[in-house]
Amino acid sequence: MNESLWLATAYPKSTYPTVDDDVTCDVLIIGGGLSGIANAYFLAKQGKSVVLLEKNSLLHGATGNSTGKLTAQHDLVYADMIEQFGVESAKQYFDVNEQAVDFARSIAESDQLQTAHSALYSQTAEGTERLLAEKKAYEAIGIPFILAGSASYLPFETAHTLLIEDEAQIHPVRFGQRLAQLAVKEGARIFEHAQVAALDTDRHFVKLSSSKVVSYRQLVICSHYPIEALEGMQILKLDVERSYIAAAKTETPFDHQFISVDEPKRSIRTATIDDQSYLLLCAQSHPAGSEKETQLHYDSLTEDIKTTLGHPDVVYKWSAQDPSTPDLVPYAGAISNSSPDVYISTGYRKWGLSNSLACAEIISDAIVGRSNAASELFSPSRTDFGSLSSRALLLAGRTVKEFAGGHIARTDSPICTHMGCRTRWNKGDQTWDCPCHGSRFRADGTVLEGPATQPLDLG
Hints:
- The two termini are 24 Å apart.
- With 459 residues, this protein is α+β, with helices and mostly antiparallel strands.
- The protein has helices at 5-8, 34-45, 78-85, 87-107, 125-141, 172-185, 295-307, 352-368, 375-378, 389-409, and strands spanning 23-24, 27-30, 50-53, 69-70, 113-121, 146-148, 161-170, 189-191, 196-200, 205-208, 213-215, 218-221, 239-250, 256-260, 267-273, 276-287, 314-324, 331-336, 339-346, 424-426, 431-433, 440-442, 447-449.
- Helix 2 (34-45) runs parallel beside helix 8 (352-368) and helix 3 (78-85) packs across helix 4 (87-107).
- It contains 10 helices and 23 strands.
């Protein structure tokens, strides 16, 4: 079974209780990744009575399977963001993510965070042109940068690099464990193995699979991909991508974290944990649930890290699943005007470590009534479904295709309990994956990742 470097080297697990009685709180948070934990910390620190529910174990989802990069350099994003939103909004996006890096640095311990320079690199003339366009966006926004030549740390030819110095990389699980302890210290109550079975936003409660009830005043959904039962949920506005990561032991750590702007697409960094250094390569991606032979991606990644990067001692392999909104910016805020007490945080587009912290501050400010300059940019209500119909139809079309084709051609696969699509068996991760909206199930049919909330019928 594949396992992430971060989960394998986490601190000894803290014990969090199950929900044994009905519970009442000011703010209920669903989702025990970094996003949910950060919301719990910020809100409890402001005096709110906070309950956090995690259906499995804390930090074992997207956070525990990330790359560990904590930076405001989110691939090529700022040139596109200026074109779509304008310079001021692009600057807001950079500022809140940079503030997230500063916040993490302020609370992290020495074995949880290290300073690292973030670098985009090009390999072709076309890639360099895109890199220079991003540089112009940095200049317009006021982002400090260094434009340099080839990346000397990388064992293959590169053309140019665009650096933001003194960003960070974290051990996401150790850092999340630390933040959870701080949240509990501030008064937050954290529960594990608390599967939400039903949600009533009119009467402000959720019912768990154990039949226990948690009542709330405000609800914050941080479940990576939102619970599908909520009216008005952005089901057709989130696409889900799966990518693959491998870690090999190395004797040559470096203080840069790289990502290519052209093909082949690679994200490369090193990490030192308890005096052992590792080289991490993230590559290979596809729409979630769209492929069955996923072991091929692990094999290709392993071969690349051995032959291209010269590190044969691959010791960890894992994959991550990331939803994205149609317009680059995550959703953080009240889900709609008709549900002002329901908040959502999702759509981090593979940059969930900084964005989850940034979004938590935006949501906590909204709940306590404090102004936040980025709230409008990140608002879930900013997108108009009609104007995004082409993207929505693409996703809906995939759903219809998979539903029809799946029932005809793959009668041996269990039906996803979300919207009735046929799942595919993922050989590499030993999971049932749904190609429609990204739900994943363990081999025994239990839910690993939503939006599905009920197990598969394997009978």
